[in-house]
Amino acid sequence: MGQSGYHRGWEILSGNHSRPVLAWRLIEQIKKGSDLTNGIIRHQIAEDNSSYRCAHCRVPVRLAGGNGGTQCLHFRHFTKDPEYKQQAEGCPFCHPDSEQRKLYSEVFRGEGQWHLSHKEKVAEILSRDPRIDAESVTTERYIFSKDHDTNIRRQPDIYCRDWDGNHWVFELTRWWLHPETAVERQRAYRRLGYNLVWLFSPDCQEKNRSTFHLLLYGANYREDAPPETLGGGGAQFNAFELSEAALIQSDKAGSLHLEVVYPHFAVNDSLGSIDISYQREIMSMHSLSLAPEARLPYGVKTALQLQQAKDHLEAARQAIARREEEHQRMQQASVMKAVRQELGTLRCLLRSEHMTDVLAERCRKLIRQCRGNYLNELSTSQALRVGLVVAKAESKMRAAVDRYLREKAARESHRQTLKEMALGYIDQVRGRPLVPDSESSHQGRKIYRQLHHYELDELARRLDSVCRAAHRRYMVEFRDMLLTELNHSQSRPLQEDRERLLALIRHAALMANGSWKINLPRYCCFWITLAFTGSIVI
Q: What residue segments make up the domains of the chain, in order of their start?
């Protein structure tokens, strides 16, 4: 790494400067002088070990290089003295190949560059402020505890004292800071009675939320905690940002101005929660409220606004609770009404209608609605009472459904038996003559009526068709027999055929066949006359 690389982040304590100066700036100043001036400075540095020291380890430094040599002008640690050599062992700027120096150079390019440049800028503004003791403005100055029995020292970025006797320390931060470190620093400066001001970079709130919120709200802040848990003891939540606008205002006013970032608490009445938004205001350091032994400085009061938001939140939550309670009461009343309606419908179904598969499924659905969909929305006592009523209704429903299923099974069995009987009867009479008034004919009519009763209409039509055909076959055969007897007999008594003729006429009328109604009287009327007169000679 070149010498200029670590000079960018290396600070030197100079007797000619009240504050540490970046090594590269001193080199630039020395380069502007003549060779004689350079020689005088080299001699001065060599003769007085306290004139130039490393701000990191406090070991004296010497000028090296330059004067036309191969090395450029640079500072190096004076380690010929064994005491100084041991003191510089841990310094990242002492050894050219130090890994610490590489790491420090990387940090300098990140936070260090902003940190060092703005530290000098703030110190310069404070030095020009007429309300600040310019001689008191120092950077990286050690501050020791007032208690001599306690070996505690702090090294703030900037220290100053105003003419009112207030002690100020400024800590510049951009990246992550360990919570314990922050708390310990605040506690130490509070014991000393110093006003500690944390100065954030403009992008710290976005890129380093954890440290920003830690220093804004305190060590007890949690990202997942609701805003109403904040506060206690009248804490004021202010963060100070060293923004470009604040620096411009500082140059104009001749005193340090800071951009105060503070939370604004607003209650979301519909959700019953507190929403946080952040507001900004540029203020002079002299307008901050100070109480160094009790708290950090603040510019905007937020405790009262937070308490008002908490009170509003409590009222909003009570209103939400009342609305929810009323909604729950109305919901429960609606559920009770629905349960009563469902149970009333169930009772009407069980009482007035013949049970069917569709009706049985509807009854089961009503019970499920009463038991599952509604009871979850009732209070425990209401659910218990309604549950007993529903259980009783369910018992009645199950009994009715079981009875229906038993009857259905018996009916299906009888239907099957009836179908087998009808098919057997059809096979018995198909293609044969059937006497209309015979026992077999009466049996067919009985089976026909039962088929209609059990809604076996198709099979009933088949049976009716077969029976009609069998009756016609018998009537045709009987007619042919009578004609044959008329043709072969001169005369004979027909008393024995009287009943058969009457049956023939009666069943011909039942068959409602037009051709039989026309043809039968020609033959039957004559034979009926013979049946009553006894005999006749043709």
A: 1-97, 107-301, 319-410, 430-533
